[in-house]
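Fold these two proteins, one after the other.
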Amino acid sequence: MSYEPPTPPTNLPTDLVNTLNESTPERLRDIATYAEELAEHKEREARLEEETTEDEIEKRPDDLPDDVPTKATITIKEINDNRYYYWQWREGEKIKSKYKGPVNPDK
């Protein structure tokens, strides 16, 4: 571990870097957790918004419930330090989810 402070990415705005530099370690950890969750959310949103072309043949997975559309993707949610799989898809402006099962069924 270096004794020098880390160098911020060049694409970060100066005001954001200054705010981070003035933050406490606890706040920085909160920011890091939020940033990671926000990135996952935005990536999931982008995946859900992608439209399949008519040329693509959609095969329905064997474990996909009847009330979940073929376009659904699997996401992982952490609840009380446990991780679970959920089917997720978009219906208009809303994102719908349906429980699939635990990530680690042995727990």
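Now the second one:
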Amino acid sequence: MDFIGAYSADHFKFLLKGFLVTLEVAFISIVLSFLIGIVIGILRYAKVPVFSKVLAVIVETIRNLPLLLIIFFTYFALPEIGIKLDKFIAAVLALVIFEAAMISEIVRSGLNSIEKGQIEAARSSGLNYVQTMRHIILPQALRRMVPPMVSQFISLLKDTSLAIVIALPELMNHAQIINGHNVNFVIPIFLLVAVMYFVVNYALSIVARRLENKIA
């Protein structure tokens, strides 16, 4: 093992460059999957005839597919039907598709956990469906959604490493390139990569706990 050579300034800069790509992919994917997941979750909860069932089939199908397969599909299969995406967009699209399905289930489960009697009481007091959702159901459900939602976001950040299969220049890709120069760098570099992932994910968990306490 060569810790001194592995932790050179050039290697640090190269890994940080890859890590910035990882964080960028994760941030965009988190925002988009969160917004889409909330909409899908609410629509499924509303039980709109036919539409909700179609969404349920789509969500359950995606949730039971490997994320790696979806990444392969967005980057290698879509060009076969005339849709060619660059590596960054393909990775983001795959993550958003997969994570939105997961988040929608968290949202739906959170909404279903609220007692039906509260809905009936709100409607009988004169609130319409939208007002009931906004003022009664969503605020309570949100408290229950925070822990699983943040866990899903942490998983998303870690899942960005799967984009190495399409050679996206993210953290793991850059780590592999450095390791390819010298086998003695493998353990030091992977230890450093592990620390970088841990720091960000641990920070997310701390934010989640504070947010959960704040809205409790």
